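sorry for the late reply, my laptop died twice this morning and i had to redo everyting from scratch. anyway the thing you sent over, i finally got around to it. pasting the sequence first so we're on the same page, its 362 residues, then the predicted structure underneath. double check i copied it right bc i was rushing
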Amino acid sequence: MSKLYIGLMSGTSLDGVDVALCRIDDSSCILESSYFLGMPLELKDDILTIINGETTVKQVGEIDHRLALFFAKGVNLLLEQEKIEPKNIEAIGSHGQTVWHEPNGEYPFSMQLGDPSLLAVLTKIDVVADFRAKDVAVGGEGAPFAPAFHKFLFSHLKPCAILNIGGMANISIIGQELIGYDTGCGNVLMDLWIQSQQNRAYHRDGAWAKSGKVDRELLENMLLDNYFSLNYPKSTGREYFNKNFLINYLEPLGKISKPDVQATLLALTVKSISNEIKKFNIERVLVCGGGVKNSFLMSELQKELPMLDVLSTEEYGISADNMEAMIFAWFAHKRLVKEPIELKSVTGAKYNRVLGGVYAKD
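ok and here's the structure:
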């Protein structure tokens, strides 16, 4: 019997929270409706302060609370939009906001904020959260988690790749063995550069990048970065691909025009993704995430992969905008029915485990 779940996703782009209402049973996950709530600029700036390492324990606790208020507002607006009572929702699956991801340190961890107990109280719905900790506890990267859901949705299309381009980019290779990992930066460096130079979050259809020319020396230097040469399993985030990453590669080269930097950052995203996809024998690439809306990025990716069909997941009936939020609705279902999620071939964990903790509404 299918039940209604809500999935929440606030990614590394920090643009807002995607709220996905899904009808789920053991064999299907259908998006019923969705809501997007933009993140207040003050909250985004304060989260970036944490990620940049300039914070106190008090500020971390306050942002944990503020994010729960923000997530609850998104959920309640969706319920109001759809005229659904909280009692009709089985659970909320909340990814939380990642502020630091370090699964390979001396003391491995992945930290997401957005107090799930407060979220449960404010929405009157049970919440499943803290999904990554158990995977890290059994030796995994704790990311990416999308490949398990991609396999659930698209196994009938194998061999294929599912590519998510958010702040970071990750791929899932659907074949005999499930493979998935973060290829590196998605939109994050482009967003950082345009924010610093034009005080805007992004440029529609990649127009600013299209107006510039790729600086070959800068591109080649960045592609030699250690992250891109690591073998999978691997995962990353803003703690690695950030302003300091950009400065370290820009400063030694002197003056490069601002549009040329943007063009080169888009080329870095395209090349780092396509270099990984070319390692596998697949027939098509299905793309989701915010990067799908960047028509210039999509056309450049198709140029790099001329033998493959590069398409939006929308072509196969799955929302490119809401895919990641749907993942965590499905993860909540898997937690409540106590089924392990098949991720060990992706994250490097020793075992497939039941993931997430349950935070009751009362």
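The radius of gyration is 20 Å.
thats about all i looked at so far, will dig more tmrw
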